[in-house]
Amino acid sequence: MANNSREDQILEATMDIIAEKTISGTGMRQIADRVGIAQSNVHYYFKSKEDLLLAVQKRVLERFVDQRKDQLEDEGNDLSSKLDVIFRQKEDILTNTPKYEYVQQDLWLRAHVNEATKANVKRNYRMWRGDVEKILEAHAGLDKAKRHMLSLLTISLLEGMMLQYLADEELDLAAYMDFCKRLILQLARDQS
Prior knowledge:
By secondary structure, the protein is mainly alpha-helical.
């Protein structure tokens, strides 16, 4: 991360602790200790744990969305290349920065009891599906209903693998991602 402000340090420490101990095991004092500051300094930036968790959720979402946007712009101009971005991003996160997946999953569970978190989770999935739908619209010639269904399937395949891989890192993630991409490509061809 380019910016290393105190707020950034607090957010990163929070994500590290959530990934290690879950949200319920994360306290403001632990975060302050991890950053090496007084707990009152954490409260200066984030008035409550709720505010801090929403900021963490926003940070994770922005990271995924910005990264995907940049990669989609740099990638080739065909369906296969664009879908590669979607599948590679998930594979990269799972293998290189799994803490983001642990944080995301804990926030997803929290959405059951917290409306603000739920709204953010909902927005995240809608944006992700929207990116897939835009790819399918531009490169597959599918109608809106079919694009929507394929975007739902794509995200389901990725999230299902994420849950399995976090529990069993011996799974062949690259082979799975390649198979899923080929499946989506075939379905897109069959539906057009």
